[in-house]
Amino acid sequence: MRFVLSVVVGLILPLTSLTAQQPRDTLSSFTSDAEFVAYYRGVLEERERARRAADSAYRHRMEASERCRQHALDLKVATGTGGAPKTAVIGGQVLTADSMALAGVQVVISPLKMGTMSGKDGRFHLLVPAESLATPRQVKVDARIIGYLPVDRTITVSRGDSVDMSVRMCDWGGVALNAVVVTSDFVVDGAAPFGQARSDQITNTQHAGVDEGGIVKAHGNHLVILRRGRLFTVAIGSATLQSRTAVDAFGPDVNPRSTWYDELLVAGDKVVVIGYSYERGGTEVGVFNINEAGALKYVATYQLRSNDYYSSRNYASRLIGNKLIFYAPLYLWGSPDDVLAALPAARRWSRGAKDSAFKRIVPPPRIYRSPQPLLGDDITLHTVTVCDLSQKNLGCEATVIVGPSGRVFYVSPNAVYVWASSWNWRSPGADERAMLYRMPLDGSAPSALGVAGTPVDQFSFLESADGQLNVLVRSEAYGDAMWLPEIARGDVALLRIPIKAFANGEDRVPWWRYRRLPAPRDSSRYEFHNRFVGTYLLYGMGSGWGRPRGDTTTLFAIQWNGNDDDRVSRLRLAHGVDRIEAMGDDAVIVGADSSDLQFTGIHLANGPSIAQRYTLPGASQGELRSHGFFYRMDSADVGVLGLPVSGAGRPGYRHLIDGSAGVLFLRNSAQRFSPLGVLGTTARAGNDHCRASCVDWYGNARPIFLRGRIFALLGYELVEGTIDGTGITELQRISFAPVEQTVAR
Q: What is the pTM of this model?
């Protein structure tokens, strides 16, 4: 599927509502089950009609395109005259199928790594140095522009040759998209204070006050740790670390086979474990009580009807106070006669008991119809479920929006945002039916806006204190489901929209709300990362799950609350952009080259600049998840950061297999890094008789700063250190592993 940031001008009208001062209409809901079933039946019938029409149009386009491609490239080559080595000239003109000059076409000559763009008259030319043509060689000519089929042809070029090309571009679907994006002139001041941790918050969260499901949480004088299908508690209140409890992360009557227990949250004296069962087909919520002594007692398991929520970057659960919040998709594949049985439901799991039947948790008035035609190949119930942990029995209520399946979701302190995009790549303008839904956490009705492009992950969003929603989008992104953030490509733009502009979904965001930004061109990097830090948006490319590269890359920075005249800062780094994190009002960029782990501090006041660098020789990141990092801010420009590390040149995916060698701690003082040292592991893996979740998808190592103390969680080990002068010294360590697990080195 290919999304385009630019839009067909005729489809977009100015929206006066985008500056409205009063809330407008919300999405419309259903009054009865019968109305919902009739709506779904109508959607299926309309989709079938649209499918037939689209297939017919697609065949006609393919036939026309093939006829066009047969005459796409005419060549005239004048052979070199010999003598002294001469530069070769490759040039020509790009035309449409009806012989009109086509400007803005990218023409690339590979493997010479040369490129240019056609001018207003469609003409272009490239000069190939003689030294690149020591012998006649074959080169590939590649011409591309949004809205047209690509043209490529391999030709042979020698020194002194003059190649005159007539390139004919074949229109894809008959619609050429305008790629001009103009910046909004809306200027505000102020930014949302986010990313500051509470004294008892030990998870690197996107927003303060919005806790995210993780692998370690604090409860009183204990740490609660989730690993490989088990829950552990470790007492940290006395002078000596003590292992207290180890229990299964599931109930005694639950078969953990084909179930992944991924996320842990603590609310009061309740410990909640979030998992997904492929055998039972749904999200599982295990509830345990914890007392002051750190003892865990299983209470119950609840199951929520859902499809797989897993994301390689995002987390499924959030906790605000006692409110447990989930986003999960439910894909509708069945007939209208069965659709009611697919609606969100919950049950208390008890094998063979009467109360184990699913009970719906969404009435018709909380099911909202799609504001746009659903003509894609899939229909999804985008479901936000809120469960009250203060109740004796887990009380859950859901809100549902019917829409296309491609999704990225983001949770602010006020709302859940879901960006839904169509997967029907054959349908012209499919991305133009993308919708951004806003589902308030106060229980009020959701609202929507039509959008274009797709965010990469949850870090592409920021709901700011000035009443705006800021979103970075790419033209070829696919949502935050499993592995999809890692393949985002295409153009980049920043959308900035007033939250009060959200309405009933009939309006689309106008093109001038998208501020076009430069796209990264670091060819050896493939994984895109972005983050809002203070008043800046930062983004760049890294190696991600692959093997670290030894070359440089560019970090882009722009003020998200700036004006049209603000320039994008480009900072050249000696490593990839694999992690972007806030360090107070500044940022740190983490990435590995082929041998070392690199940290680059970015000072953001008075314009972005590289303020400091630190290199850890012979190392790479030990964790890729956002929770792997934590920064303790001691004052405005002083703090300590921690990050799990591993051996040199290790591909990112190896953290699922090898674990981390230690946790590195760096002091940041007045924009200067100083190494404090590494708290390392002293145990190697043995047989822990794992029964569930036997791959650490969410990692197993964390830096922990709690009540003035410093810990490193490393698999089944917890290590405490203390900063003494210029270094960190180990005070004590404990293994809480099953006996068979720990083997001394």
A: 0.78
